[in-house]
Amino acid sequence: TAPNSRLPTAIPPPTHSVSEKIGDSPSLECYFDSTRYLTEINNPFAADAYPWLSSDGLRLYFTKQNNGEQLSLAKRNNLQSPFQMPVNVPLPDFGASLTSCWLSENELGVYFCGGGQLYYSSRQSLNDGFTSYVPVTLLGLKPEFLAGASLNEAGTELFLYTYTHPNGYISQYAKVAEHAFLFQRYLTLPDGYGANPGQLSKDDLSIYFGLQVDSVNRVIARMTRPTPVDTFALETLELIPGVSQDGIYNAMPTLSADEKWMVFVRATADAWEANELCITQCDSNLVSVFAPETGRWSVYPNPTNNVVYITGPLEGELRADIISIGGAIIQSETLDVVASNRELHLGNLPVGLYFLKLYSDNQVLGVKKLVKNQE
């Protein structure tokens, strides 16, 4: 089984860089650059994992390790306030340890995983606990480990993180009977990559999940589809900039309905107890380099072997930050505001995908994807 029955096993490193397979989709709308650990909730000596964030971003359900795993709920008064002390939400005794939970929009229904099984329970009001359960039958695929269920609004489509040695997958099921789903497909990822747990967006048009890039880097990514009846296609796969920290486990994302708030998990070790909750907010617009006509400035050539030029009617004191896919600033330069073509030299950067964040008088003008090729 997966280590600690919670985290997926590492897969062999791919033979290509991230930028060769991911990063040329223009659909990202924002940049998350204000991540913090939920220290008011996290227990540094136990697991806090598998979050589910309400549509308004004010209520957070998650699995808390506290003399056994339990479903916990933390609330906040407004979007800028910290979360209050979490409380236990009673679940029925189903004979195994809780792994993950996913709630319906009205928070009266819950799908939860534990002991290699998926269950469903409901309650009459938000003040009640969940007192009884029904096992959910999964047909056509029997994985070694499963967690991170999420359903579409109609309840007819189930997405589930499944693990079968040596890889993790996002598996899609279709409802065939009450509390029964039939396996349809694995979501297609680039060769050599694996999946870590995630969730559907509230509008059913995106699925956010952890993407295992190599044996040490696991980052937050998403796939999109035009309508809720379409499938998620490989060409829509894109990294979420500014969220993931390099070299550690980043996974289990859950978002508010407007997709401006994200709660996810970071772990610095391959252990259940290492999981900690983080929260991040979308602060600024992301303008894709593959649609340079949008925005007041552009970058070329892109991809580049060394030098890029920033053009546009820019004013004020200009600064450009080069940011890794994990959100770390790895190069920062002040630009010549007078020159028509401001240039950045990237010769010292490894081949890969980066983000260029441009400031004018310390105000963010936007963020663009930037691909560095071999010189």
Verbal overview:
This protein is mostly beta strands. The chain has one helix at 18-21, and strands at residues 30-32, 36-37, 48-53, 59-65, 69-75, 87-88, 100-103, 109-114, 117-122, 134-139, 145-151, 157-164, 167-177, 180-186, 194-200, 206-212, 218-224, 238-239, 249-255, 261-267, 276-285, 298-300, 307-311, 318-323, 329-335, 342-345, 352-360, 363-372. Strands 7-8-9-10-14-13-12-11 form an eight-stranded mixed β-sheet, with no helix packed on it. The longest helix is centred in the N-terminal third of the chain and has 4 residues, at 18-21.
Main traits of this protein?
eight-stranded mixed sheet, globular, 28 strands, single chain, 375 residues, disordered N terminus
In short:
The protein contains one helix and 28 strands. With about 375 residues, the chain is mostly beta strands.
What ranges have pLDDT less than 50 throughout 5 or more consecutive residues?
1-21, 23-27, 284-295
Q: Care to count the β-strands?
A: 28
Tell me the strand percentage band. Answer: over 45%
Along the chain, the helix and strand elements come as: HEEEEEEEEEEEEEEEEEEEEEEEEEEEE
- The value of Rg in angstroms is 21 Å
**Numbering strands along the chain, what is their spatial order in the largest sheet?**
7-8-9-10-14-13-12-11
Q: Any idea what the shape is?
A: globular
* Cα end-to-end separation: 43 Å
Report the total helices.
1
**Main beta sheet: strand number and arrangement?**
8 strands, mixed
Q: Structural class of the helices, strands and pairings? A: mainly beta
Helical proportion, percent range = under 10%
Overall pLDDT confidence: 85
